[in-house]
Amino acid sequence: MAHHLTLASTSVYRHELLSRTGLSFATANPKVDENELKATVRDPQQLARGLAIAKAQSLSDQGGWIIGSDQVVALEEKIFGKPHTAERAQEQLSMMQGRTHQIITAVAVHSARETWAWVDVTEMQMRPLTAAQIERYVVVDQPLDCAGSYKIERRGLTLFEKIQSEDFSAIQGLPLIRLINYLVTKGFVVP
Asked: How far apart are CA 79 and CA 40, in angstroms?
């Protein structure tokens, strides 16, 4: 049975992850003002879940099944977004070095009948880093478009002592194991 599937994201990372499944899907830019939700929701898990649902539901006019996802990096109660500048990336990494933070990745699937959502929490223990190591890393990987200021799929992995995760793909932006298990229950055929 063929299903129309849309990924509500223009992220190259999420597109690449979903492509690994062999599923046929379209992509579309979600129609969501993320700043509105970020201004009112302070709990990292609620924020990630709310944004994933909002992204999926924002494209309900497309029909079919829509996947929304969002990721939040949190150190205790502080939420780290995309740094956009090298200086801000170095500042974020300086605050996290030598400490454990969380990557909270939410996924939502919306259809005409229902909305399903799930949140993955990964514990990331960063090793102690010097200011020179942080600066060198930011120059090499340019993680300016990544929440938390590192690219785990590149050299960012070298920043960590320990990672505890149920699903490594969640760290990269889309928890594929839980997502695929859900889609299979809805009749999607995954190789």
From this structure: 13
